[in-house]
Every structure is written in C-alpha cells, then in structure tokens.
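Our working data are protein records whose layout never changes between entries. Instead of coordinates, the fold is spelled out as a row of discrete tokens. Here is such a record, shown just as it appears in the course material:
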Amino acid sequence: MSTIQKIIDQLELQSHPEGGYFKEVYRSEGTINQENLGEAFSGQRNYATSIYFLLTSDSFSAFHRIKQDEIWHFYKGSPIKLHIISNEGAYSNVIIGNNIEKGETPQYVVKAKDWFAAEVIGDNTYALVGCTVSPGFDFNDFELPERDALISKFPEHRNIITAFTRL
C-alpha cells in the first residue's frame, strides 16, 4: 500500500469537490448568530472549523473561494504552491512548506473572498496540510467557478486560471 493510500485510510479522508482529500477534524461547539455575522452569511456559523487536506502531485486544488479567511498549516510531504487572485484581480503565489531557509512558509492566510488554487511541488508525491476557517466553514460559503466565468472576470490571468480549473 502506498504512503498516500495509508494516509487516506488512517485519517479516513474522502474526496473533496475542489480536488484532493479531506476530513473535518474540528468544529467548535459555539456558534455565531446571523445578526453578528453580517450580510455575507446566511444562518449561523460555528466559531471555527479545521480539516486535514491531502493533495497529490497528480491532481490539484481548483480555483475556489470562501467568505472567510482560511489559514493553511503545513504538516508533511512536499511543499504546496498556492496561487491567489485577489478580489481586486492581483495575482500572487506562496510556497507552503517546512523549508524556511528556502523561503517556504509553514503557515499562510488566504484572505476572505480571494480566489485560490493549490498544487504539490514535485512528481509522484503528496502534501498533507491543515486548513482552519473562522467563522467556521459551511459549503454555503464555498464557490467553485466555471473556467469561462473566472476568465471573463480576470482575462489577464487566463493561463493560470486554465491550468487550475476543471470546468
């Protein structure tokens, strides 16, 4: 059994709609009521949520966005390159990993409403990370756009959008 399959089995991960595998490992008991969340959210949200997220070099996490900040934490494997298009249209990227001497960062915050995608750096490998969201994640806050819609919004980023979308 491969290392990747062992991690999937041991952590009981399942396929994620954006690509890769995940398992929710934390959801706070406390909740925030609608009137304290503002117009961006509908219904209640937990204070925070956290998942394991496994990405392999033969896949990618497609461009998506959520309404909350998302904190990425590096655990194991090869580094991840995170591609970000801000809500205003600026492109940037960051390498999330544990080799600080080479400029990798073990933790990174994607700002609320920024579009982002991820890929593992290297062939035949994987990255195990964690993602923490506050207010807590709800699939109602998740947006996975079609390629043409995102390109029409950011035509200057056509190549990177094409590389990291599936539809």
Q: What stands out?
A: Helices lie at 3-11, 34-37, 147-153, 158-163. The radius of gyration is 16 Å. Residues 50 and 132 are 4 Å apart (CA to CA). The longest strand covers residues 69-77.
